[in-house]
Amino acid sequence: MSSTTPMTGVNVGRSLDRLAHEIIEQLGSVDNWALVGIVTGGQHLALRIADRIETITGARPDTGTVDITLYRDDLYTGLEKPILGETKLPFKLSGTGIILVDDVLFTGRTVRAAMDAIMDFGRPRFIKLAVLVDRGHRELPVAADFVGRTLQTDITDRVRVDLTEGGKEADGVRVILEGETV
Length: 182
Fold this sequence. Notes:
The chain is an alpha/beta fold. Helix content is 28%, strand content 27%. It has a domain at 32-155: Rossmann fold (3-Layer(aba) Sandwich). The protein has four helices and eight strands. It is globular.
């Protein structure tokens, strides 16, 4: 079997539009919350969602990034040379609602690490989760508040989100089956 492409660039765009509308419907004015993308997959998506929210409402939410490298529970067991990204939270974190943005929700471990990192910088009013793809197979009790698309995958599959900001020619989501190289 070969990999599948369940989401093309058009599907990615529609999912981001839907996420922006759902966030606005649930949270309203951008004055009391911010979008924080998890480095690297979520940082570009957070900016794209912020662009869409600004187009819809005329107001742009604050945005930031959080790097989870030092918060990973496998940091010392499987990573030879961890590459540190940058955490940027250029707004008052305490009392502000956070919508944590990532590309793929899988086991929940990345989200747990991101929440730990954010809490080291302050105490947000709330943390909600927005993901482009929810592929299931949780190991921790984590659920997304906003989901672009739910995909049925085997636990051994890999889900890859390609974005033009990451140097890809086009946006898309691919499911790569066990044993297949990319």
